Amino acid sequence: MRFDIDEQSRILEMAWEDRTPFEAIEHQFGLNESAVIRFVRQSLTSNSFKLWRERASGRKTKHAMLRSSNVSRGYCPTQYKLR
C-alpha cells in the first residue's frame, strides 16, 4: 500500500500512542499488526525502532482484546484539551 506523507505521519503517531490499539490502525489504514511493525521498522532509525518495539510490546492497550473495559477511547482525556 502507498500512503501519502500525512497518512504516514498519522500511522507513526498512532503506533507510538499507548492507548491506540493495532486494530484501530488496521481499521483506518488496512495494516495489521505485523504490517505496522514492518512500516515502523522502515520509517524509523534502528535505535528508535528498538525503543518503540520495546514500548509497544509491553502495552496491553495496544491490543483491543487485552484492554481493560475501562479503556473506551484511543487517547488520554487531556490530550486534545483546548487552551
TrEMBL record:
Keywords assigned: Hydrolase
One example GO MF annotation: hydrolase activity
Protein name, as recorded: Fumarylacetoacetate hydrolase
